[in-house]
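Figure S4 source data
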Amino acid sequence: MRSGIGAFALAGITIVALGGGVFAQAPQPPRDPAPLAGANSFTERQARSRLIDAGFAMITGLSLGQDGVWRGRAMRNGTTDDVAMDFRGDVFVGAAARAPEAPSPAESPARGGTRP
């Protein structure tokens, strides 16, 4: 009987030790699919540092756009791609990092006029 209680206690301790860290975790807020425009207080040096911390190297053409997003090109895992960092410091790669295209003249109203 005593050995049964000892085995049961050992099993209980093992379960607690192995599963103790599996408590509910706070959910991460969803990340935006593209950089958010906003007043950016990061310097170019800080933006480069964030990109390097994200695993990028050979960062070129890094510039701050009028939308407050740092954009350029960089290499990671042997592939060069577009990169961007928004005012929150979030890093984006590929199509998500590209600047939105300006509307074509046919899509925008004429200066001083209105759309029909």
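Figure S5 source data
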Amino acid sequence: MNIKIKNLLLGTMMVLIGTFFQSNVLAHADHDKDAIIIKMANIMISLEHFPTSGDQKTLQSVMDSNSSTEQEKIIANAIMNIQHQATAEDQQKLQKIIDGTAPTSTVSTLA
């Protein structure tokens, strides 16, 4: 019975943590502005080792879009290049985004 309670507790914690991080990305009044960020966040939530071919198409469309910001394009490219973890070059670019944006920015949160 202790194992069942432990598994239930761990499962509940994972759901709460996932909900917290999801709400950080989605809890903004201007969802249209953050639509690209939301797409990339959804890819990251389900990511297993590397992006699927469908994810790569979505990320490529972000990089090709005129409405994507330079920061969004950098993040999309970094996600496309993930092979178990971000490359060293992408990690440096992502850190620049984190350091150069407001802490409440959805771009900073995703980076």
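The chain has one domain: 2-110. The helical segments are 2-26, 35-46, 53-64, 70-80, 88-100, 106-110.
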